Amino acid sequence: MGDWLRQAWTVARKDLLLEFRTRTAIVSAVVFTALVLTVFNFGRDPTAVATIDLAPTILWVTFTFAAMLAMNRAFQLELENDALEGLLASPLSRTSLYWGKLLANLVFVAVVEVVGLPLFVLFFDVPVAPVLLPLIAVIALATVGFVAVGTLFSALVIRTRFAELLLVVILLPFLLPPLIGAVQVTARLLGGRPLSESAGWLRLLAAYDIAFVTLATLLFPFTVDE
Amino acid sequence: MLSAEGLRHAFGGGRGEGGGGRIVALDDVTFTLEAGQTLAIFGPNGAGKTTLLKVLAGLIRPDAGRATVAGGRGAIGWIGHQSHLYGHLTVRENLLFWAALYNVPAATRAQRAADVMQRLGIAEHAERAVWALSRGLAQRAAIAKALIHEPRVLLLDEPFTGLDLAAAAEFRTLLAQLRGAGRVVVLATHNVGEGVELATDVAFQRRGRFVQFAPRGGRGPAQIADEYRRALGEAGG
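^ inputs. structure came back:
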């Protein structure tokens, strides 16, 4: 394992251990997911719009906002006792720090999605079973992109006032491409269409992942250095 | 082992000439320290001491000049205003985490953590979460964190803050041992009474500039305090 990846894993493991101890972000995000799905379930008129048409949007809006709760925490925990200063003063490379945070955030968001998906099926009674594997693949593909951008921006805003609000405001416009792509592919999958019909959207999601993971890795040092 | 050449840095305003509202934190600071030397930097609040240490630690890129530490970041131990410790991890977990970041071999991390906790008298608190420690114990844990990778250069920013008299005395003894082991120590404080006896060299800093930088010689705390008041009075009018 490369040195930078080993150090990234050290950071990610520490973040996960801290989350395991406090469970603050993960419990908040999971409860938030359940509440949003409940609100959508009771707040819609099933006779006006078919569930199958609305469900993909609901799924992705829920995942997006729940993920933001988790991503907000990524650098907030480094403010305690100014641990971020210690990290930046250490031999840890900025790339390793970014990837460590990215890995931990991916685990957080994956946990939220693992809990959220069954709740989504329960509330909206959509036929997920026949398309479970491709759906999981699409969720993974979209999640990598928006967590990559979210991790970068959470570092950018962490020393500002109203960081939590600012993160949402600057992050959402960047999340539109993967969000649109994910909703489109999910709608087609739940509608029983073949995956090949979504090839264009899948390419967009893959391109977004590659472009933004690369860009975020390159830009991250500028967001944390004084 | 450690050198600063013509360091200049300012905060706020524009970067260009005559940028309005700029606060000068470093103004042409130059010095070199070799193994075994301890530089005590005294200066009032806002003199630029913390900025200087941050530049030496690589946390701030100066507007001009260059700071060089033999061995790079991995050779530096930093004790700042904050402990850099994670409150919900135990003292041992914190030390093992920082040891891993400083590339201490995995096989020796546990022993190294045990040794440094023993030296600092916090071995019995190893399994306590940092948030549950008193301020003095947390400061000792922060010192342990700074020493876990056996740094060759120690940068100490107001290190006596939060220590009671006994702990401060123990820390001075520890610093003396570390200096004796061939390390470079840079200690910045606003309190002239702290750390003078450890210093081989003394600098007075005001508005970013070293108004005096000289070997301590045989000067004691009272004499240095007197010179400090005079030097800063002359520099500032």
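The two ends of chain B are 35 Å apart (CA to CA). The longest strand of chain B covers residues 23-33.
thumbs up if we can close this ticket
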